[in-house]
## 1
Amino acid sequence: MTAGQPVQVGDFQMTFLEFNPNATSALAARGLTPQSGSKFVGVKLKATNTSAKEERPGKVGLMIEGVYMETLGYHESDGMRSVSSLQPGQSVEAWQYIQIPESMQPTSYTYNYYSTDYNIYKSAKNITVRIS
């Protein structure tokens, strides 16, 4: 998959919009600094609720080369995790910020979907999106 191609992930249609390979300075302006030897990157997404009920877009996560956004991410006011819920058919554009090693130069990410049935994050059909 590439930028702009929507994919179905659980109850959401997700579209990759933009990648920020160095979101560290933007988040530093908000008082957030990465751990030593790490940096922040950002992935801007559009999430559309395709289910028949209200859902949290935070159920969709990202994994960049083994680093889970949910474990190391920061959820800012413009972040996907700050959106409490979407009604059926409603969309939102927001960022997911991820802390990764400074030396990492990611070229893709994989979607994950939080299943309340199993209470775990699962890879979403191994949907990988190229970011460079």
## 2
Amino acid sequence: MAPLMDRAVAEGVFPYGEWALFDKTGVRETGATEGEGGRWFDLASLTKPHTATALLAVAAEGRVGLDDPVGGLLGEAQGALGARLAGMTLRALLTHTAGLPAWYPFYADGRPFFEILADLPPGQPGMVYSDIGYMLLREVLCAVTGLPFPEVIRRYVAQPLGIGQLCFCPDLSLPLVPSCRDNGVEENMCRERGMAFDGFRPHCTDVVGQPNDGNAYYYFHSVSGHAGLFGTREGVARLGQFYLNTRDPAFLGAVTPQPGCEGRCLAFHTGGAFPTGCGHTGFTGTSLWVDRQAGIGLALLTNRLYYDHLPQADMNAFRREVHLALGRGIH
């Protein structure tokens, strides 16, 4: 791992990274491109498999069914919102097949979440990777459990899986890796949509302890189902180790491709950066790979956005190279 990681730093794929290689019994190897590691990272969309795990745990209690319509779980919704939610199931949200758009800058709009949701145009048919679906899953989990979302994650994921290093809104005294230097990517995305937002963070400024994701930070106050969690390589590895070991039917769908979903499982996905097994990535340069057949996995955490320019390197190509090397036993 170390030579691959060091080469990636030299080639400008990311400025800093850490890893934890694990098997069914625990972590086999850890490392960092500088120092001992053990720092906290903005997990970005690695928040999603934690959200999915919480939902599967709530379903295992019998409190929801994966084929339940979302509308019935959130109370009576009328008009366009009611129509949209009536035909949308939890399973569809988990697999990104709920007919939602991929992204929308809720913070630039400013209206309440469900009011905006009702007005959004439908996404393309089939599988469309959507942050919005996991924002909605946050609302469902809070409504069904009666808990604030950080407590949902603590009670249904961190505590039962023994993940001590996982939280929203981390204390700034922790050894935090900067998330990014600005929101240049989303500024361009808003500009392309003809939408203005005057609250973006200043350019070329360290963002520490705050999620890079604009909707998570500006709109959901750093706590959302699609992004916002912070954690360490060991904490992410604990989630991966759980999915290497589990035989519980309530959770096996998380690592099993679902019919008609283009390789999507209920928490992870196959293909792309994951030539074997399955996994999930995060925009800040994070990923978790789980190969149940080989019995190994990798928590790979980097801060690829910590440059004073937009991302230029192909992070997924690097991830794929690493996972192939590990599959061949080269690490």
## 3
Amino acid sequence: MAWDGTFDWRQDTSVFARKWELYIKPENEIHVATAVVLDYGTQLHLHNEGYHKWYAESVLPIADQRENETDPIDLDKNIEAAKKLAELMVRAIFA
């Protein structure tokens, strides 16, 4: 069965950080990415659980999503940027 292109984002409330886990369900549930805001910045983690094509697990830093250096850091914008990149990357790998 092929992946139908839908994303299942779940917030991980067991940790202090803003953390979201991305799952897809081609045949069974596969954990493919984590978007997390940490003290030192926002990151996207790509996971490889052995489904479909092989790819290296990766950690990608996400730049602060603010317009000017003087603007405050917006953690919601940062996590949304990480989630958007995760969906783009997962679609490129699995579609």
## 4
Amino acid sequence: MTDLAARAEHWALTLTRIPSVTGTPDEVALPETLCGLLRASPAFRDRPDDVWTIPAGDRQGRASVAALLRGRGRRTVVLTGHFDTVTTTDYGDLQPLATEPEQLKPKFRSLFLKEFQYQAVVGCAWV
């Protein structure tokens, strides 16, 4: 795995593990959590003021996160994204693992394999 791929995987897993279901206190807390993670990262460790929140202005107290990573040229690139979890109730019995992709993956495999085996047996019964 390349360094870039490892860093992308680290951020994807780290962010997925943070509960942030829409309409919950976790969603409201996520921006400050994300700011803390970014400020602790090598890119912003020496420039913590270059990471901040922008209040959404709603009753829930939600916010967006902004960060300025300075380059060498005059051009500026702005990246923006969406961060919250719509719901985890669709995971049923696996809901506690909804934000744990590494633990969830083998459970899904097992469930799909069982369903596939069931369909194969039922399908054979009709032949």
